[in-house]
Amino acid sequence: MSAGVLMQPDRTLLVARRPAGKAMAGLWELPGGKIEVGETPEEALVRELREEIAVTVHPAKASPLTFASHAYDNFHLVMPVFLVRDWDGEPTPREGQELKFVAPGDLHDLDAPEADLPLFDFIRDFDKAGGFA
Questions:
Q1: Which homologous superfamily is 2-128 in?
Q2: N or C end of the chain: which has fewer CB within 10 A?
């Protein structure tokens, strides 16, 4: 898995609500997805963003930010997370998901997968410390 913090100039970031019929349906998460064999995490993020939300990101515009590590019942997730401030296109849901931009401090108002909760803490704290300025 690879995920992106797509941040607008006003420091709001994009979250996606998992659609009905998918695992963890209804939960909000950072956009991204599975890394395919032979892909780097950056390439996977670029592909997933194009496929899922119709935006184009150059791999060099995805800056490493942090990672998530979480043990679910049937697998252990290790997910690099990248900061993306520059993309082409308007985020448009292509897989039945809902999209919205939220402030870093409002992430915990959303129901989210367990693995994303520490990420939401990190993003909120990083923003409060001026890291996104």
A1: Nucleoside Triphosphate Pyrophosphohydrolase (3.90.79.10)
A2: C
